[in-house]
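Hello,

Our lab assistant flagged a job as stuck in the queue for most of the afternoon. It eventually completed. Since we weren't sure the result was trustworthy after the delay, we are filing this so someone can double-check. Below is the sequence as submitted and the structure that was eventually returned. Let us know if re-running is recommended.
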Amino acid sequence: MATLSGTSAPSRPSLATVAELLKPITWFPPMWAFGCGVVASGLPLADRWAMVLLGIVLAGPMVCATSQAVNDWFDRHVDAINEPNRPIPSGRMPGRWGLYIAVLWTGLSLGVASLLGPWGFVAALIGLALAWAYSAPPIRLKRNGWWGNAACALCYEGLAWATGAAVMAFGTLPQASSLGLALLYSAGAHGIMTLNDFKSIEGDRRMGIGSLPVRLGVDGAARAACLFMLLPQAVVVALLAVWQCPWHALAVAGLMVAQAAMMRSFLANPIARATWYSGFGVPLYVLGMLVSAFALRAASGAAG
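-- returned structure --
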């Protein structure tokens, strides 16, 4: 059997190849966001441990893993240019196995989501729908970097955060302050999504995918990514101050300053340093998410 790279392929993928397709390293952001929603709820974990653990599994190993499989299947020709060693273009994931796994994981995710009640199921349904819309034609949101990154950011951060808060509140709508922070950190994650696009400019340009580096150029996309990451955090700092959480506001502001200092190096050479900034700058961003979640928890405790 021929592969996209022109070599022979096995008849079925190994378990290691399946794991590589599902990309465990990408599961952390939605799992973290779900945990932030749990913290922000201000509610005790005493009788919700099982549901919280189930939600973390849903956010990462299920829904996020599904999105990775879907993306790799519909991006297989782009990956043959940008990253030919990935499971599908390399031939280690032969035939239509990539598609079969994406469909299977979609069904398994909905099964797990059904155990989390109506909110968990609807949230998973929305996340999975966006995952398919992002990668699959005819919608294929990723052809437009503005819309595609927005869909990913909403799923990875806002939807996961809101689901964590709702699970803690036995399926009721999270408080407005929690939803507001979830949306702000989703907006900031748009910039994080752009960081991932710098490594695939050549294939995106040749295959007609309008990522921000393709649309705006390397320097323009780098500046846009930094603004997307910094501006929502500035609003978060202001809100925390208004909500009488000065120490939390100061901590998030400090994390912002550290990010801004690192962004200067990133902006000097975006293609070479996008991965570097993802590894060292983005953790400061997500740490700020947790600080903000603890601010809401402290505020709810004070109000109680």
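-- support follow-up --
The delay was a queue issue, not a problem with the job. The result is valid. The radius of gyration is 20 Å. The chain has one domain: 15-303.
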